[in-house]
């Protein structure tokens, strides 16, 4: 009877415990979703950021990568590099124009349409992708502009066709600089989804099968953990100074620092800080394709302002320097690059501050030049002394504890006060002053 109970207990354990446990399979960990965020102009550092994000996501087996995008546009050459990386990515890329009210303008249009999945938040917009607004074209002829426009139109049609989007509406964004709201973009088959936020987007695309550029397909699994991939500290710094206004202010601060060092040699700090700021500003403006003629005019303004410290021009060099600086500033982005312009208010405010600063330095220099010499022989002129002998016309005077041979055109009695009017060698010329008189030219 006891053995029978053991057998029955073993059978029960086998049916309800051992067999169910043996049938369980190990659940593989869910693949993460990598999220990148771009809020600002499309500049070279953004290419590095996206590339590092794609590499990190692929290394960790991410199911897809989501790029939250809000940009007024940027450089055409940089856009081409980013689109190429997205198209050749081994991991599906989702571009989400967000947050609400964001804009995927100009370069952002190409980037959005190149994604495996394109989505927009409520109130956002996309379009205005004419290449003239993305690159400085002031030196191009009408034929060259037309060629550039048609090339960009063909490129965006190719991207749209391969991603299953409407090539005609995509082309209109280039040829006619047309913009689309989130609803219009969805109806025009330029995007795939409208989503109120990131979580809403991930729910909508979970299980969606997307086509890769090489013809293969991938099914998205977006219910895994979300991993945000921010810019590195160096990338954040470069991205921050890539704003044309910040780059311009850096350059202006650098110019002021160098001018201050030239007016007051040996201060050291203004020169060092100014040199670093100037180089950072010029480097950033160079990466943003600022016009060379504008940069040369700005540098000429610096040279003229600095020259005022060594050449007596009565302010002419300073005025020329400020004028050259302002004209160069206005020319830096005169090609109207979309999202890459310097606020004119910043230009004129900086020019006013610079003019006031240089005027203050010039006033200090002029005041120092007019100040009476108080050292050496010249410092005796205007000093008061006492005649220690009769002066008729020669005699001896005591000035600041020293005896000097003196000469006067008038008779001066011993003990009278005199003022020195000139110095010739070791002889001072003096004049008699009344009791209670003061230094001449004081």
TrEMBL record:
Residues 33-198 form the NfeD1b N-terminal domain. Residues 377-432 form the NfeD-like C-terminal domain. One of its GO terms (molecular function) is peptidase activity. It is a multi-pass membrane protein. Its main location: membrane. GO terms for cellular component: membrane. It is found in: Membrane. Keywords: Hydrolase, Membrane, Protease, Transmembrane, Transmembrane helix. Gene3D superfamilies: 2-enoyl-CoA Hydratase, Chain A, domain 1, Nucleic acid-binding proteins. GO terms for biological process: proteolysis. Residues 245-363 form the NfeD integral membrane domain. The chain crosses the membrane at residues 237-260, 292-311, 316-334, 346-366. The keyword Aminoacyl-tRNA synthetase does not apply. InterPro entries: ClpP/crotonase-like_dom_sf (IPR029045), Membrane_assoc_protease (IPR052165), NA-bd_OB-fold (IPR012340), NfeD-like_C (IPR002810), NfeD1b_N (IPR056738), NfeD_membrane (IPR056739). SUPFAM superfamilies: ClpP/crotonase, NfeD domain-like. This is Membrane-bound serine protease (ClpP class).
